[in-house]
Design brief:
Belongs to the methylthiotransferase family. MiaB subfamily. InterPro entries: Elp3/MiaA/NifB-like_rSAM, Methylthiotransferase, Methylthiotransferase_CS, Methylthiotransferase_N, Methylthiotransferase_N_sf, MiaB_methiolase, rSAM, rSAM_horseshoe. Keywords: 4Fe-4S, Cytoplasm, Iron, Iron-sulfur, Metal-binding, S-adenosyl-L-methionine, Transferase, tRNA processing. The chain is an alpha/beta fold. It is built from 13 helices and 19 strands. The strands form five sheets. It has a six-stranded parallel sheet with strand order 2-1-3-4-5-6, sandwiched between helices. A five-stranded mixed barrel has the order 15-16-17-19-18. A three-stranded parallel sheet has the order 7-10-11, with helices on both faces. Bound molecules: S-adenosyl-L-homocysteine, iron/sulfur cluster (SF4) and FE3-S4 cluster (F3S). FE3-S4 cluster binds next to helix 2 and helix 6.
Length: 475
């Protein structure tokens, strides 16, 4: 194991977990020989790509413990909710779904229920789950995913609830088994945590400080994914542009992109998320020189008012952001941009909001992920005055969507006549067609034989519909 990172959960600790996994495996095998039925697991990840990538590690470990998988909660012998804390809505969904599990547990008292992920890493939430959901057997945080076998073994054997909410701040866990959700697209985390402390955001509190995986490990994993037939690798981090910053001597993210691009094979590289304050000419040059990297940058601006950007602690002004976009446009031919926007940050006025609309008009994003501000306990913004009624915020939100949908239609129209490279990922909405994403991250649908599923095809765009392009394969 490479120990250049701040610290790695050591091999002995992981070996111990493998031992627990094999003990659970034996228990599950014994159950199978008695009943003729394999025990089944259901995991659900509620959050971002990092959270989904964690979910694949939960599944990898569950597979090692001899569990099969199901989507049906009534069939499951173990259910794990891998939660997200980024907005209140995300948390409410978990509470709702957890409430419903009470009946499952009543019908099937031997089943196990676990809750993990970002929500549980907040003390008040962990307390609430412990008290109000007594039928939850395991509550564990974002730092304890590798301890799943031990927790499952303990609860299976002793029927005692287990909690692991310890903050293993500077640690990275390598070597966990991963059960990929698909066969075409793979997540590849390059770093964990965040140091930015945007004032609205809970992520740094629940995910800890920034720590990068070693580039050797990442590159080796990327090679393996390509060899196993994956066609798209999504490099993940809360702020990939600061990759390596906390590890002396480590590659920059731009260099990492180039090295992964140099891996032989027919695949595409994506990455998420780039923080505008750290998006540099070096990064844009690397993208321009790396033909496998998509021509799309997700560069969340959050809002267009300098006053609010400062209160958000984002580390750039609207002008600086626009310069960054301009630099990217000059460096990367035909670059597409998407962004995240928060409406109704504490103290935001309609005047501030109009500056966001003005910025959208200047940048002309292909797509936006839009959110109404949600107060998160423990963050600095949660202490700020928030006088604007929620109803007003929803009206601004609707206005934002209207402005953006007009821009998106225009952006899509501009693509008619061009030839795009699409990874044929799934059957399209129309009979006899396939659909997939272009190098700009846009959905495109085209008539094609199913045999082409999983390959890259060149498509001439003939029409632009709402949120997708339509085209024909170019021979
Ligand atoms: N690290 C990424 C974002 C991770 S969270 C970045 O900095 O871009 C994804 C998005 O959720 C953020 O970009 C932001 O738009 C939104 N978000 C985060 N906290 C929020 C909150 N408290 N209320 C509303 N939206 C929020
Ligand atoms: Fe949250 Fe900001 Fe970190 Fe993104 S960069 S995860 S918004 S604190
Ligand atoms: Fe949610 Fe945690 Fe991701 S809070 S957005 S699952 S890092």
């Amino acid at each position: 194991m490479n120990n250049r990172t701040v610290g790695a959960i050591d091999d002995t600790a992981l070996e111990e977990q493998r031992r627990f996994a094999s003990l659970v495996f034996d228990i599950n095998e014994a159950y199978f020989s008695q009943t003729g039925r394999h025990r089944l697991a259901l995991t659900h990840s509620y959050g971002c790509q990092q959270n989904v990538a964690d979910g694949e590690k939960l599944n990898g470990q569950l597979a090692e413990m001899g569990y099969g998988f199901t989507d049906n909660a009534d069939e499951a012998d173990i259910i794990i909710y891998n939660t997200c804390a980024v907005r209140e809505h995300a948390e409410d969904r978990v509470y709702g779904n957890l409430g419903a599990l009470k009946h499952n547990k009543r019908r099937k008292p031997n089943m196990l229920i676990g809750v993990c992920g970002c929500m549980t890493q907040q003390e008040h939430v962990a307390e609430k789950i412990k008290k109000s959901y007594p039928y939850v057997d395991m509550v564990f945080g974002t730092y304890a995913i590798h301890k799943l076998p031990e927790m499952v073994y303990g609860t299976l054997l002793n029927r005692k609830r287990v909690f692991d909410l310890e903050e293993r701040q500077n640690y990275i866990t390598e070597g966990l088994p991963v059960r990929h959700d698909g066969t075409l697209k793979a997540w590849l985390p390059v770093m964990y945590g965040c140091n930015n402390f945007c004032t609205y955001c809970i992520v740094p509190y629940v995910r800890g400080r920034e720590r990068s995986r070693s580039s050797e490990t990442i590159i080796a994993e990327a090679k393996q994914l390509v060899e196993s037939g994956f066609k798209e690798i999504m490099l993940l981090g809360q702020n990939v542009n600061s990759y390596g910053n906390t590890t002396p001597g480590e590659l920059s993210f731009a260099e990492l992109l180039k090295r992964i691009n140099a891996i032989e094979g027919d695949f595409r590289i994506k990455f998420m998320t780039s923080h505008p304050k750290d998006a540099t000419a070096e990064l844009f040059n690397a993208i321009a020189q790396s033909e496998k990297v998509e021509r799309h940058i997700h560069l969340p601006v959050q809002c267009g008012s300098n006053r609010i950007l400062k209160l958000m602690n984002r580390g750039y002004t609207a002008e600086k952001y626009l310069e960054t976009i301009e630099l990217a446009r000059q460096t990367i031919k035909d670059a597409a941009f998407t962004s995240d926007i928060i409406v109704g940050f504490p103290g935001e006025t309609y005047e501030d909001f109009k500056e966001t609309l003005a910025l959208l008009d200047k940048v002309r994003y292909d797509a936006l992920f839009t959110f109404i501000y949600s107060s998160r306990q423990g963050t600095r913004a949660a202490e700020m005055e928030d006088p604007v009624p929620y109803k007003d915020k929803t009206e601004w939100f609707a206005e934002l969507l209207k402005v953006q949908s007009k821009i998106a239609v225009e952006q899509y129209q501009k693509k008619i006549g061009s030839v795009v490279r699409v990874l044929a990922e799934a059957k399209g909405k129309t009979e006899g067609s396939l659909s997939g994403k272009t190098e700009h991250g846009t959905t495109c649908e085209f008539p094609a034989h199913e045999q082409l599923l999983g390959s890259f095809v060149n498509v001439k765009v003939t029409d632009a519909q709402n949120w997708s392009l339509v085209g024909e394969i170019q021979q």
